[in-house]
Amino acid sequence: MMKTSWLQKLDALLIYLLAGAVILTVDIHLGKQISLWAVLLLPIGLATWNLGRAYGVVLAVAGVAALLVQALVWGSPFQELRFLLLAMVWQLLVMLAFVWLVDQLCGREMERARVLLKRP
Q1: Phi, psi of 38, rounded to the nearest 5 degrees
Q2: Mind giving me the DSSP string for the chain?
Q3: Structure confidence at residue 109 (pLDDT)
Q4: Which of 24, 38, 58, 75 has its CA 20 to 30 A from that of 32?
Q5: Contact assessment for residue 27 and residue 36, using Cβ atoms and an 8 Å cutoff
Q6: How far apart are CA 30 and CA 60, in angstroms?
Q7: Is the pLDDT of residue 4 over 80?
Q8: Contact 2, 51 (CB under 8 A)
């Protein structure tokens, strides 16, 4: 995780949100039979790595909320709302698990870097 000021973190968060918005816009234009929700893992992973787990969780929740709104407004391939909501819950769980994994990997990399820098 980078040591940055809150203004730099806010700028980075806005960039990651913009990247997510671009992905969702492309997703809308592809139609309801093709979904790019897994591509949202890219800005979520980058936010987690560079800004921390909390920012990754915020982006994951915002991404699933945007996907839900998108499905309700432009339609989804599911016949019933309960199936759509179940899919959204699974997508949120996948995104949160990804955030946790990236956070764990980042912590291990930071520890590895500290050990390597201490060597003579």
Answers
A1: -70, -25
A2: -----HHHHHHHHHHHHHHHHHHHHHHHHH-TTS--GGGGHHHHHHHHHHH-HHHHHHHHHHHHHHHHHHHHHH--S-SSHHHHHHHHHHHHHHHHHHHHHHHHHHHHHHHHHHHHHH--
A3: 94
A4: 58
A5: yes
A6: 21
A7: no
A8: yes
Distance of CA 30 to the CA centre of its chain: 20
Residue 110 has pLDDT above 60, yes or no: yes
Q: Please report, as a single letter, which amino acid is at residue 82.
A: R
Structure tokens at 44: 């979520």
Determine the distance from the C-alpha atom of residue 96 to the mean position of all C-alpha atoms in its chain, rounded to a whole number: 8
Torsion of CA 63, 86, 82, 24, to 10 degrees: 20
Integer-rounded Cα radius of gyration of the chain: 17
The answer on pLDDT for 119 being more than 80 is no
| Cβ-contact 64, 100 below 8 angstroms | no
9 vs 26: CA distance, rounded Å: 26
Residue bearing tokens 């936010």: 47
